[in-house]
Amino acid sequence: MTPRVRGTSLALMRGLLVLVLSAQLLFAWLQPRPAASLEAFPPPPTAAALRGLSFGEPVALAQLLGLYVQSFDVQSGVAFSLAQLDYARVETWLSRLIELDPKSDYALLLATHVYAQVNDPLRSRQMLDFAYRHYREDPARRWRWIAHASIMARHRLHDLPLALHYARALALAPDTARIPAWAQQMQVFLHEALGESEAALALLGGLLDTGRVQDPHEIHFLMEQAERLRSAERSTSTSAGIDLARASD
Amino acid sequence: MTSLPRALCIAAYTVLEARRARLLWLLVGVLAGLAVATGFVSALALTETARVRIGFFASASRVALVLVLCLHVTFSALREHNDRSMELTLALALPRGAYYLGKLLGYCAVGVTAAALATVALALSTAPGTALAWGCSLALELILVVCVTMFAATALRQAASVVCLSLGFYLLARSIAAVQLMSHSQLLDPAAWSARLSSGTAELLALLLPDLSRFTLTDWLLPEAPTIDLLYPAMQTAIYAALLAVAGILELQRTSL
Q1: Which of A72, A87, B212, B231 could disulfide-link to B174, CB 3.0 to 4.6 Å?
Q2: So what's the ipTM on this one?
Q3: DSSP code of A215?
C-alpha cells in the first residue's frame, strides 16, 4: 500500500469513526432516562450469611450495603417519601451494617439524619430508639448520635420527656466514654424547659461538685445559670406567696 | 479477490481454531457444571424451586460465557500477534481491515454458538419462545464483549490489560443505569463541585456506553414476565459493534507491525 493510499484510507476510517461515534451519542441521548421503580424493600440476609458473602471483607461489604440501603429510597425520578418504606426492614438492614462494621457511624447517621427525618412521629421515634439502643453498646463512639436524637426529640417531635431520657443517658455515661461537657449538660436545660427548675439546679450543683468541669469560663457560665435558676425560683415562690396571702385575705 | 471472501476465509479459520482449542467442549463443560450447581441451589430452595432454578442458571451462564469468551478472544488474538502469524497473514495480499473483520466475524460466530448452547440448556426448563428471545439477547451481548475484547487486544497487546479493560467495560456497562441514578441522589448537595462532577461523569459515560442492564434479563424467563424488548439490544449492538470495529481497524492500520 502506497503512503498516499494508506493516508486516504486512514482519513476515511477516521471520518467513519466520527460518524459511528455520533450515531452512538445520538442513540444514547434518545433513550429514556433510567427510572427507579418502587419495589418492596427486601429483607437482609442474616449477619452470618453476610459475613460469608463478604469473603473476609466485612467492612467493605458494610460500606457497599450502606450505599445500597441509602440509594434504595433516595432516587431521582421517584416521587415517594420515606414514609412508604417498611421501617422494620430499614432497622434490620441498619443493624446488619453495624454488625458487619461496629466501628462505622454510617448506619447511625442514616438512622438519625435520614430516616428519622420522616414526617411520621412514630417512625421517627423508631429510628431514634434504634440509635439509643446502639448508643448503649458503645457510648464513647456513638454519643453524638444520641445527642442529636435528644435535640430532634425536643425540637422536631416536641417531646421533652423523650429528649430528657436521651440527655440523661448521656449524662450517666461513664467517664471513660469522654463525652463532652456540653452534651452531658443537656439534661439541665431540658429540666429547666420542663419547668423542673429544682431538678435542674440540683443537677448543675452536682455537675460543678464532681469536678468534671475544669474550664473557668464554663464554670462561670454554669454558675450564672444556677443563679438565674435560683432567682427564677425565688420570684416564683414569692409570687406564689403573694397569691396565697391574697387568697387568704 | 475482493475483501469480503478473504474476511470470510479468516473467519472460518478463526472458528476452526476455536474448535481445535476444544472451546466447544469447554463451553459444554461450563454449562454442565452450572447445571449441576443449579440443581444443588434449587434443592436448597424451600419454595419457588423452578424460579430459583431458571434465575440461577440464566444469570450464572450469562456471566460465565462472557468470561470464557473474553479470555478466549484475548489469548487467541494475542497469540497471533506474539508468534508473528498475523504478520505472515498480512504479508499476503490482504487488507488489514479485511483481516480484522474476518477475525471479528469468527469470534462473533463463536459467541453466537455459545449463546445457542445456553439457550438450548435453558429451553429444557422454560418456554422455548422466551428462551429464544433471551438467547438472542445473550448473543448480542456476547458480540459486544467480543468487539470490546478484540479492540482492547489490538490496542493494548498485553493480556492482563486486555482482560481488565474488557471486564471493566462489561461491569460498568451493566451498572451504568444504577450509577446514573445514584449520582443524582438527593442526599448529595447539588451545588457541590464533587456532586456535579460525579453526575456529569455518569451522564457522559451513559452516553458513551451501551446499557447492558437492558440486555438478557432473567425477568424475561420467569412467569409474569415483562414485555421482551429486543429492539434496543439489536440497535445498540449494531451501532456499538460498528463503532468498535472501525476503531479497531483504525488502530490496526495506524500501528506499524
Answers
A1: B212
A2: 0.82
A3: -
Pick from B80, B87, B121, B123: which is nearest to B103 by CA?
B80
A28 interaction partners in chain B (CB closer than 8 Å)? 206-209, 211
pLDDT in tens, B175-211: 888 888 777 766 667 777 888 888 899 999 999 999 9
Is the C-alpha dihedral spanning B19, B143, B202, A57 positive or negative? Answer: negative
Per-residue three-class SS string for B91-130: CCCCCHHHHHHHHHHHHHHHHHHHHHHHHHHHHCCCCHHH
Give residue limits of the domains in chain A: 43-75+82-174
Distance from CA of B23 to the nearest CA of A (A): 31
A43-75+82-174 belongs to which CATH class?
A: mainly alpha
Q: Do A74 and B186 touch (CB under 8 A)?
A: yes
pTM of the entire predicted model: 0.68
Residue B47 at interface with chain A, using a CB cutoff of 8 Å: no
CB contact under 8 A, A10 and B249: no
Q: Are A170 and A184 in contact (CB under 8 A)?
A: yes
